[in-house]
Write a structure and sequence with these properties.
The protein is α+β, with helices and mostly antiparallel strands. The protein has 18 helices and 14 strands. This is Endonuclease/exonuclease/phosphatase domain-containing protein.
Length: about 500
């Protein structure tokens, strides 16, 4: 079964199975289960699978689309009937000209649909699996499979078990749980199931996943703001390692590419053969690619967004970065007592003293005595509306309202990450934002900021000539932009 993530199993009933559903009838009944990780991006691939294999049954795991869109996708995929199951974690489609639905049995990690095969008039059970991430949680799945096991019909079980039956079915540096594999095999044996060899490769996940997102999904122990910040921290390390492995030292790469291009060009000039010409062209192309990567690096460093791609120039960006650093560096300052400082340590101590005093002044008056004079204009209905937690659409609107290429803050993640990986992070982000609005204490990593001093006048000489600007992490900005959007209706009123 191609396009299948996890295991596919068939009842091991020998002759009894042949009596209920002959082998040629199994071949005619084409079933597909795919873990799409977002049905939008996988739609062309799914359409090709359905058309190529003439599938009569299709289960999609993690569609990442609102459940009211299933009818539209059923039409695009060519299925006449459909069902949303497992809290929209799975979509099921079938062809009513071949399969007549009889009944449904659901559990937290699987749903089983009984059909009558209209070709043979035999009944069969198809179970779609969406297993939990830990051995302990999956034990509920093994128990449910034993409960769903039919006594007198063919049974197909497929989906994402989140565990493999053997090491041959696993790739990667981390090893699957030995205990989890043993319990999985015990369940297969107890249910009388057999593996069905896939028609394609063993590893047939068709979803395109951004680099590092498998690490994001593997750590689900902590939720909310703390969990989201920890996942970002882990992902940052993964991306840093990936960048070193894939790109390496981009500056050294340019030097190496220049040397290889020069050598290849010299060989071609000495002996202008077709082989040497091809090598020279390839080396020149690699040099261009290396230069583009270096240009991209300096462009991101410079934060210049107003130049067209054709105007990009590495030297310009490099000079811009150096110019910004030189311009923003404070080399001389007068403190609150009028004393001038040129030493970096003294300048730093003076800055800390000034802004600490500025933001920790004693109260000069108590405003509570005038609160009784302020009329109450907010109704109970208004109050309930403003206290309502933001939903996923409001948070998405806040994400898309921010400049995706703006500085990412201390954690390094900007709007481009949140937009590009939205399908993977949206539910974790929702929990984090809702925690913020119910008043949960903001963890340091979630609300960390960088304080930058922006000159208010030309040639500033005192601390009062600078305006402190807080560069927050993108998460904190999203919460800020979500709040006014959350009260649009009230504001308009």
């Amino acid at each position: 079964m191609s396009g299948f993530s996890g295991e596919t199993h068939q009842r091991r009933d020998g002759a009894k199975l042949e009596e209920r559903l002959a082998t040629d009838e199994i071949d005619k009944l084409s079933c597909r289960t795919t873990s799409s990780r977002g049905v939008r991006s996988s739609l062309p691939r799914l359409q090709a699978l359905v058309q190529t294999h003439r599938a009569h049954f299709l289960a999609i795991l993690e569609p990442f689309v609102k459940e009211d869109k299933i009818q539209l996708y059923a039409k695009k995929l060519g299925f006449s009937s459909h069902m949303v199951v497992l809290n929209n974690k799975a979509w099921i489609f079938w062809d009513i000209s071949t399969l007549q639905w009889v009944s449904t049995k659901s559990d937290a990690q699987l749903v089983s649909l009984e059909f009558q095969d209209l070709i043979s008039s035999n009944h069969l059970l198809i179970s779609t699996i969406y297993g939990k991430h830990s051995d302990v949680e999956r034990r509920g799945l093994w128990e449910a499979m034993l409960e769903h096991m039919p006594a007198d019909m063919a049974w197909f079980a497929g989906g994402d078990f989140n565990i493999v039956a053997s090491l041959d079915e696993h790739k990667g540096s981390s090893h699957p749980s030995a205990k989890g594999m043993a319990e999985f095999n015990d369940c297969i044996l107890a249910c009388g199931l057999n593996n069905i060899n896939p028609s394609g490769g063993i590893f047939t996940s068709s979803g395109r996943r951004p680099t590092g997102m498998e690490h994001w999904e593997s750590s689900r122990n902590v939720n909310g703001m703390i969990g989201f910040a920890e996942k970002l921290k882990t992902l940052k390390g993964v991306i840093r390692t990936w960048s070193k492995e894939v790109y390496g030292d981009i500056f050294q790469n340019v030097k190496n590419a220049e040397l290889l291009a020069s050598e290849a060009q010299a060989k071609y000039e000495y002996n202008p053969s077709e082989d040497h010409r091809a090598q020279a062209n390839l080396a020149a192309a690699k040099l261009i690619q290396a230069c583009k990567l270096e240009t991209s690096f300096w462009q991101q460093k410079s934060r210049v967004t107003w130049l067209k791609e054709g105007d990009s120039n590495t030297k310009f960006y490099h000079a811009f970065v150096k110019g910004k650093r030189s311009k923003l560096k404070i080399t001389n300052i007068k403190d609150d007592m009028g004393l001038s400082h040129v030493d970096e340590d003294k300048i730093g101590e003076s800055a800390v003293h000034h802004f600490t005093s500025l933001f920790s002044e004693n109260k000069t008056s108590d405003p509570t005595n005038i609160l009784s004079l302020i009329p109450t204009n907010i109704t109970e209905e208004d109050n309930l509306f403003m206290r309502k937690l933001p939903d996923l659409e409001e948070i998405k609107g806040a994400v898309w309202s921010l400049n995706e290429d703006a500085a990412g803050g201390p954690d390094g993640f900007n709007g481009r990450f949140f937009r590009g990986c939205w399908d993977f992070i949206q539910h974790d982000l929702l929990q984090a934002c809702q925690e913020f609005f119910i008043g949960v204490k903001v963890p340091p990593t979630y609300g960390s900021t960088i304080i930058t001093l922006i000159p208010k006048v030309d040639n500033p000489i005192k601390w009062k000539d600078y305006r402190p600007i807080s560069l927050s992490v993108h998460l904190h900005e999203q919460d800020y932009y979500t709040y006014p959007g959350h009260q649009t209706e009230h504001t308009a009123a």
